[in-house]
Amino acid sequence: MLDLTFLNLTPPIVTLSDAATVDVVNLINSDDLKPSEKNVLQSLLEVSKAKERAYCSGAELSAFIGSSAETVRKALISMSQKQIFEKMECKTKPGTRRKAFLYRLNKSALPTVKSTSIQSVSSIEELKSLVNPSDEMFGKVEVLIFKLAVCLEHSHKSDTSSKKAIIYIDDEPVNVLVESSGNNVIAKVRDMRYYVAILRLCLDAMKRRYAQYLDGAIELATVLKPEFVIAETDILRSMNLDTGTTSRKHAHNAMMRLDATTYKVLSAPKAFMDEFKIKEYFAKVSHFDVRNYAKTIDDRVAYQIELSNSQIQSLFEECKNQDSSLLLQVDHRIYNERNPLAFIFTFFSSSMKLGSINRYTFQSLKDNIAPNMQLREFKIQLSALLFKHRLEQRDDSGNKIDYIEWTADKKVIKIINAKFNGIEVSIPDGETIFVQRDTNYERMTMNKRISSRRINNRISPQSQAAYVSKNDE
Fold first, then answer.
1. Does residue 433 surpass a pLDDT of 90?
2. Of 83, 74, 81, nearest in space to 105 by CA
């Protein structure tokens, strides 16, 4: 049951969630609602704006309209039956078992208008030269999506359309519901490489807009437009992938899964909600919306992408400051990494400081990169990954030695030193896992390496003191 005692509101409690005002107005103006239902929606819009909060009580709405509480209650029940509102049980007072209800606007019930062709002149200008062969091959990711992406599916065979997961942010649990709409399945972790590429290309497009704004050629509102038109070939080229039919098909399937997949935060510490400006539980967080996939007027196949307000703000801050804490730079090697566990490990390690040594147990590392996986299975998969990328060990005479130790069943590694995608991993005692990112992305272009920066103090099983967790199993 949803705990809303902190609101100090009398039930029923009503919220528009994060629905755009224009969408709510379009719903009010539709022919599907009774006058009493339109009055409740209009009052909810006005009261939420006046009170500057996401939640309102039924009493506040009835006072604004000048009608009885029963009239408001019946209108809410009627709209929930029409699936305009989701009706959920909640707790509004501590120490009571009395049922209370939250009515949350169902955004899927809002009228939407999708374009049928991509013909914007400004969009076509954005399509020109978005990808330069000398561009560094790294991507960008919004911090909140970065935290939530570990909930996605690892197996390419998975047909899951809804699941709950627990992730840990600063060692505090955050309960998340991951869902896909329509007939789609939940996105795979490797699909995130397309999200990373899209966000990077949108950032490049906004930088061009911002430069035009500084020159006085366009208004600020044009800079902050949430729509971008990104050519299909630019997405693939930015990831150093070929542009053949198979690559286009894989990219399109991934884009559709990302478009359909959303995260809902069911419960989380207040600090987490405040940090990411999440106003309410059950608010949806999405990767992006694919508004259209078609040919442009210059005969290029392109995606019309719409980003959320928070994503637009993150990109704009990056344009202004050239360095934003809202966006993370992601290692380019994720684009070609085929192993899902290696992919999410590399994705996760992008947030680590260069050269810093980070200590985990099997349990804590699993919580960070594969929260849905069973601990035993995680140990087995991680052991196989590390064994594949094991580093050679040599004695003082230069002779090769086997510095690897397995459990009795030969499935889980107890001692090893390995390296993949610029990440060094050391397990010295069967329990502790040391992780170090030892290169600075190895800055790459599509045709040559620009530079490589290395760390001299490397980790190894011999160099680290043992640390045994009591809560690993």
1. yes
2. 83
